[in-house]
Design goal:
The chain has about 80 residues and is an all-alpha fold. The protein contains four helices and no strands. Helix 3 runs antiparallel to helix 4.
């Protein structure tokens, strides 16, 4: 927990009074908020430009093949599906 979650007395009482459905919604919202915070914090460590540089340094991969590879990499970074 980077920031830490502070639960004050009022929030605690509200949680105690929740029924099953309300608690489920509360937990899902809490999870989603944490997930989004984690995504923002982690960020993308390897950039497509870094991959392009690494590919261009490999002997035997020409500009045409490098362009095809980068097109597939860019598709993955944009949220596309994996290709096998």
């Amino acid at each position: 927990m980077a920031k830490g979650i502070k639960l004050n007395r009022e929030q605690y009482k509200n949680v105690k009074r929740m029924d099953h459905k309300q608690m489920e919604t509360f937990v899902v919202n809490m999870y989603n908020a944490g997930y989004e915070d984690g995504k923002k914090t982690a960020g993308s460590r390897v950039k497509p430009s870094d991959i392009a540089v690494a590919i261009s340094e490999i002997k035997g991969i020409g500009t045409k093949k490098a362009a095809e590879i980068m097109a597939a990499v860019n598709k993955l970074y944009e949220g596309g599906t994996k290709q096998c």
